[in-house]
Amino acid sequence: MKAYVLIEIRAGEVKDVVRQLRKLENTIEAHMTFGPYDAVAVISAKDLNGLGVLIASEIQPIPGVLDTLTCVAVDV
Length: 76
What we know:
Helix content: 25-40%
CATH class: Alpha Beta
Mean pLDDT: 97
Largest sheet: 4 strands, antiparallel
Low-confidence stretches: none
Oligomer: single chain
Structural class: alpha+beta
Order of helices and strands: EHEEHE
CATH topology: Alpha-Beta Plaits
């Protein structure tokens, strides 16, 4: 299961947060963005519960992360 996590980050900490995101085992990719969110991470997990655990225990606690919005990817 794959998801896109849009991340709002405290000013001045975007590069550090993206570096930390890229170190996470379940991160496929992470990039700085421009717009209402400061970064996007593509993550994967076995199931929906795994995505929730990953976001709550590994992404949201990263210093500088203010808010996240998770978009679960589905195949059509």
